[in-house]
Amino acid sequence: MTGTALNAIFFCERRVLKFLILLIALIPLAGLAQPSPTTSLQQPAFSQLPGQLPQPVSPPDAHAFDEYTSWLRAEVDEDQIPGLALAIVSASGIVRVETMGVRSIDDQQPVVEDTVFRIASVSKTFAGTVASQLVNHNIVGWDEPISDLLPGYTLGTDSAAAELMTLRHVLSHTTGLMPHAFSNLLDAGVDYREIQQKLHEIPAVCEPGRCYGYQNVVFSLVADVVESSLGTNYDDFVEENIFSPLGMENASMGLDGYQNNPDASEAHQFGNGRWQVSSLNPAYYSVGPASGVNATILDMVRWAQAQLGGFPEVLPESLLEMQHTPIVETPHGNYFNRWPRLDKAWYGLGWRIMDYAGLRVVHHGGGVRGYRSEMVLIPEHNIGLVVLFNASTPLANDVVPKFLDELLVALAR
To answer: Angle, to 10 degrees, between the axis of helix 123-136 and the axis of helix 297-307?
Structure first.
């Protein structure tokens, strides 16, 4: 028998094995008990920094944030921002939910709890969970080379470095490839499937694992890994294994999910002295892991609670530890690195991890044309914040540090 035939048989057997694992572990993935940490199938947990995931205490009550929501409402009124929704939650309850403004300045329908927003790069937190689920169920390994997971893909101009790139590198933005590779093409409306043909052209700037470089296109390789490993579409996987078991009833993936929802808000940008309804850029929906999620504030309540440990049958602590552990330090220059009380910042697996005035926080923000989103968790104090805007507003840069400052005041009382 030829070597080619043997390779074909091996590949076929591997696909069959993974399909059988999928039937056992992922239909639905969340409905089964997680593997015991002592079994050989369980990937070892990442080593934790001291105090990484302490036992949470009771969060402050809703009145502790009266000043915060009053501040936010005043800023929205002053800047005439079209609309927003915010939620403050604990792992097991809702501390506060508020909505402000309108879904669209054209029809003046108010933003309500069922209004749908694009959450932009906060979608990366879902991709981190998808990858962690695959690893937790031994479908793939964090340190399995991307060249093995995606045969035929050539990533970057350095073929030797490309052989070293792993799933961990992709999810932590440490592939060593030029930051924001081909985001300019997404901005120009070019679909991911077209950009895939140019992945070999991305310059390599460091050895994989040695430096941080934020990505949208390269990060979205996780969707290709899902399809190659399981034979299923990434969007379907998210809906079946995250949205459905968490009860995120109005969340969806992709352009169709947005356009077909009558409760979707409109995008807004500021120009000529006023807010105007903006067009959408469908290309950013083609990179689903990077920016493909649509959700209401109540959907995001469920997501925040799950990330705080409130749904261990769906997101067990071992999975949260994977995602929330620092992997690479992020340099100064981004808006969050300019928060005045920020001590240090890292990227984990789909999440930013920060030390802010003595608080360990887990954060991600997002922005696409006409939308901004911010999400922050403080696991030690069992509290999280989500703010969704249907406008490209710089106010989004301030909502997290202001919240953290208010939390510190409440904790000092």
So the answer is: 40
Is 328 a member of any domain? Answer: yes
Question: Are 283 and 192 contacting, i.e. CB atoms less than 8 angstroms apart?
Answer: yes
Buried b (16+ CB within 10 A) or exposed e, 114-128: bbbbbbbbbbbbbbb
Token digits of residue 399 = 């909502």
Dist CA 286 CA 413 (whole Å): 47
Asked if residue 221 lies in contact with residue 208, where contact means CB atoms within 8 angstroms, the answer is no
CA distance 344 to 80: 33
| Total domains present in the chain | 2
Contact 298, 114 (CB under 8 A): yes
Residues 23 and 74 in one domain: no
Is 141 in a helix, a strand, or coil? coil
For 235-255, letters b (16+ CB in 10 Å) and e give bebbbbbbbbbbebebbbbbb
Mean pLDDT, 10 residues at a time, the chain of 413 residues: 35 42 42 31 33 49 86 97 97 93 97 98 98 96 96 93 96 97 97 96 96 97 97 97 97 97 97 94 96 98 97 95 95 78 95 96 97 97 97 97 95 87
Cβ distance 128 to 321 under 8 Å?
A: no
Q: How does strand 252-253 pair with strand 83-89?
A: unpaired
Could you tell me if residue 288 is inside a domain?
yes
Residues 321 and 398 in one domain: yes
225: containing domain: 3-29+128-230
Contact 227, 234 (CB under 8 A): yes
Global pTM reads: 0.86
